[in-house]
Amino acid sequence: MILGVIEYEQSTMTELSLQMVTFGRDLAEKSGDEFVGLIIGASDNAPLIGELGRYGVAKVITAAHENLKDYAPVAWANTISQVIDQTQAKMVMAPGSDQGNEVMAHLAARSDLPMATNCAAVSADDLSRITRLRWGSSLMEEAILTGDCKLITIAPFVVEAAEGASHAEPAEESFEPTLSDQDIQVRLIRKEPDETEGITLKNASVVVGGGRGVGSPEAYSVLEELAKLLGGAVGCSRVATNNGWRPHSDQVGLTGTRISPELYIACGISGAIQHLVGCKGAGKIMVINKDPEAAFFGKADYGVIGDLHEVLPAIIEELKAQGV
């Protein structure tokens, strides 16, 4: 059995969780194993079970306990550990998110098992053979993972979330773990709503990003105008954040937001590996930079060598002429 830990928000699976389910389902089909979804602490399981069915998952374990009402990483890890003991799972995987990595790290510590984060591939012939992204996704490491149960997280955007070839009506198995108050000493008690409304970096189909080449906080006005015309959002590099030109919430990169728009327009950004990690989920990348040697051109689908302060106004003028 391959067990997938489901991450959700308001009874809906997160995008990274859908990617993990797709990865796990396809791996199980090739290896001849069963992929089982594990839902922990959800107040309403039905929408999540239905969603898993659309992604071809035939069995779901739902874990419920008074101490699972709020997200608590230690309680989640303890629950998964007990499910492993009961099911003898060969592998447990979770999304490569902050929450997924946190829970799996606690699970590895309490189980005395090694854990591999940011996995991009697992051999169907030998589940111990994995490939994972290292050094900000700048290299791929092939490794052998020891332990009776393999613990991994799936790197964001290494697969595209896709529903199963056929939908299933998952069989549900209830599980009540043994937990104590010590397991919830650290827990999530509330979430502050995002102050940003409407289009954000996370949901925008177009993102216009600016870096050192923009030159000043005031100069971002032309990026904002283009983003508004295209119904998109404005992002920035770490340099822009460090210089105080844009808030950290606008930063795209390894230590910022990871985006997946249809189009990312990078303006005056050199293309440091940390930034590339944040935008690798983009469908297409357009780079505008006056330095023809900028590293970002090597990752671009479209490239414009020129001053962004000349190129962007020209694009805006043409879009307006086209009635956009």
UniProtKB/TrEMBL annotation:
Q: Which SMART domains match?
A: ETF
**The Electron transfer flavoprotein alpha/beta-subunit N-terminal domain covers which part of the protein?**
2-186
| UniProt-listed GO biological process terms | fatty acid beta-oxidation using acyl-CoA dehydrogenase
What keywords sit in the KW lines?
Answer: Electron transport, FAD, Flavoprotein, Transport
Binding residues for FAD: 212, 237-238, 251-255, 268-275, 289
Q: Name one GO molecular function term.
A: electron transfer activity
What cofactor requirement does the entry state?
A: FAD
Pfam families in the cross-refs: ETF, ETF_alpha
Per UniProt, the cofactor note for this protein states:
Binds 1 FAD per dimer.
The cross-references to InterPro entries, in alphabetical order and at most eight, read:
DHS-like_NAD/FAD-binding_dom (IPR029035), ETF_a/b_N (IPR014730), ETF_a/FixB (IPR001308), ETF_asu_C (IPR014731), Rossmann-like_a/b/a_fold (IPR014729)
User: Which positions, given as ranges, span the membrane?
Assistant: none
As for family, the record states: Belongs to the ETF alpha-subunit/FixB family.
UniProt protein name:
Electron transfer flavoprotein alpha subunit
Organism of derivation: Desulforhopalus singaporensis
